[in-house]
Input
Amino acid sequence: MGGFPILSAMTFLPLAGALIIMIVRAATAGSRDETQAGSEGRTALMAGLIISGATFLVSLAAFAYYNPAEPGYQLVEQYRWYQNISYKMGVDGLSIALVLLTTFLTPICLLASWNSINKRVTEYVVAFLVLETFMIGVFTSLDLVLFYIFFEAGLIPMFLIIGIWGGPDKIYAAFKFFLYTLIGSLFMLVAVVYMYQAAGSSDFEVLENYEFARSAQTWLWLAFMASFAVKLPMWPVHTWLPDAHVQAPTAGSVVLAGVLLKMGGYGFLRFSLPMFPDASHLFQPVMFALAVVAIVYTSLVAWRQTDMKKLIAYSSVAHMGFVTLGVFSFNEAGVQGAIFQMLSHGIISGALFLIVGVVYDRMHTREISAYGGLVHRMPIYASLFMLFTMANVGLPGTSGFIGEILTMVGGYQASSWAAFGAALGVIFSAVYMLTLYRRTVFGQITNPKLNAIKDMNRIELICIVPLALLTILFGVAPNLIFNITEGSALRVLNLMAGG
Amino acid sequence: MLDYTAMILAIGPELWLAATALIGVLLGAVLKDKFNALAFKFGALVLFAAAAFSLMNYQGGEAFNGLVRTNTFVNFAKFVSYAIGGVTLLMSEGFLKRHNTIRYEYALLTIFASLGIGMMLSAADLMTLYMGVETLSLSSYVMAAFHRDSIRSSEAGLKYFVLGSLASGMLLYGASLVYGFAGSTEYVAIAAAEPSVGMMFGMVLMIVGLAFKVSAAPMHVWTPDVYEGSPTPVAAFFATAPKMASMVVFANVMYTVFGGVIEQWQLILSIIAALSMIIGSLGALTQTNIKRLLGYSSIANIGYALVAVAAGQEFGAGPLLVFMTLYVIASLGLFAGVLSMRRRGGMVEGVNELGGLMRKRPWLAIALSVLIFSMAGLPPFGGFFGKWEVLNAGLDAGLLPLAVILVLASVVSLGYYLRLIKIMWFDEPTEKFEAIDGSVTFTVIASAVLTGVVFLVFIYQLSGWAGNAAAGLPI
Output
């Protein structure tokens, strides 16, 4: 790489695109009237698609330059910025995988909004592109302060996306989302300042090798946990998630479940484990307990939901419980499984929200009872829905299976009880997902409005089919991912062991 | 042999302000109403020149046998205060014109107030300090009541005057006690004197007086009322130039006069800081008048700044300058935003009047949002680094509880900052604001760009300047 800052280019390309869209809109504001509002929105969406598509290509290029055989950070760019803080970017296997997930999902989100977002479309596209920059930045920054800036900045566009384009209770959901996440991350900020002062640097590599005192580790670990537990989310601070998901527009839910939740797991792997190993060991039983509670409790809650999106939101909390379980099992199977589970859940839950969005756009309700018998009118939809239902349950052959089995294997090595609890969750996930599927897709059409419902159109297929292919591909050939992430998973464990 | 050149250079900006203010008075007497419109350009020019002046002799000097002594720390504050004072003057012209109260006295009062700012910043003696504080205060009382036909404005002026006099009295009494027990009014001599109980009494009274001037809780009650009642440009001035200066004066007094007895006042200032943060952010939650809301938010922000003061000179001086600079620029922009809320010939001040601003004036809404987030200290905007520096200072000095309160207060304050964002972005549009003078819109956007973007990327520059300025303080 001849010094071209490909990661910076990838990170800031969407932001630059957003600025251009805004400026073009301002420049053409004079010649516009109300009747053209629709076509202007389509143009903006098209521009957004091109920009995010280009970002995806750049991220593929970055991936091509990435060498999975090397465990450390690669493609590093570093400039001295402020005090001892650097503008430092770089990726390892864990982050490049999550970056690819982000850049892959964003164009899909924008495309999925093609028909469902009809007001203030230009602003919507701008918000999404800005959000993409912050999401990529979270995964590519190698400096704690820089990471914090991206991590927290992402709240603003997401707040706007929920608040402007959300459902009836959007204001409540947006505030809840923002304040919950903020209170966690501000505690992290205090910890960041402390670490920065103690180690004299906020560089990841310096911090990873700095030995924090045992007593300090406990507090730092808790402060970071406050932030990541909300983000992941873990029981009992998960309650913002169902609200945010239900109120957010479809694409907002996709990106929330697909990427934003992963920041919590990423944070655990990047900070809690390598930087505070003693505290991580100390809190392992607590985390296992919370993970099992999350898996069992939220699965049961999901079962009782009458709103499709809420059901999937709770199922997300349960699946994130597997990530916690895997991360805190401190062995290769668990950590690899957790990373895999994050990626796989990003794809599957994203797809499930899109699936719900498809019928919501037609019927404008997410009540499960309003549906039934969709298979008679929407056969393609029913089969894709089936695939993702099975993937969410963890059927072998889909990517969901690999993540769950590996995290449970890892968890079993650390604590058989935790694995037992998690296995219960697998059963429950079959219960609620199959119930959802049966009630919406099978049976007779009871709601007369459903008689005229149309099967998926081309745009929806373009959005969902790639996700379906990936689900099966990663289910059949999980090594595609493991080869990328193996180095960094082992590196995390080595750092933990003090190596 | 006295070195007159060095002396004049040391108090150059203040001499310049005093001279031009008097010339302004003469011009007003001769030209009468013809001077009214001109006076604002004149005043802004004078203040910008004074800002440049304070940079010319940035290293500082001594004058009048130690009554006045400047250094880079105060000169930094002088520069920011004068420059911002000039901008508020330019912003005010259109507003006063529309209210038929455009009078040259306003510009001259701003100059006199700035003279007070300069004097209290340059002070190296309790007498000079008091003179400066009073010059600023008396000009401010008149400015608050400048709309003399409006009951609210007169009320604001009177309230400010009565409470302000009380605080000045405390400051004076404290100063006299300190003088009595230390045997001198000079900063250096007091710092060298043996601390005694009487002197600590004096110090506490002085803290009370100064806390009133910076509107720190529990001496804050005047702030929302005065901000609400005063004409908006006056409130904009109060919230910026004197805030910056008073805060730096506060720090200067604590650092240079009482620097040796930091263990005596660190707790007091910590409590004041904590109270300000808590009361400010809780108080703002329920406000519906945007000026009152900004008043409470300024109390909270002063609380953050006081964390830096409480951290002591070594840790807090630089961060204080960074935080206050970013804060006053954001504050200036937000008040300029309030100035642009004009509809059917009248000003509106309700928070809800901003409804749907994003649909009607997108750039204004974006600029205001950037300012609000920046003031809330949320990354990626420059204001985040103000908080970052203050947090660093607080933790360096071992004030962990204050840091935690700061963090919690930030969450609470997001409650009202987000409400503003919600009103601007989510709510249905209200009637469009009337077009407003270019200078106001320019100020909003310029300060948004400055705090939001420029000082994000170039924060190391600002921080470096502030660090060097803080290094000029005597140790």
Remarks:
- DSSP finds 21 helices and two strands in chain A.
- The CA atoms of residues 94 and 126 of chain A lie 28 Å apart.
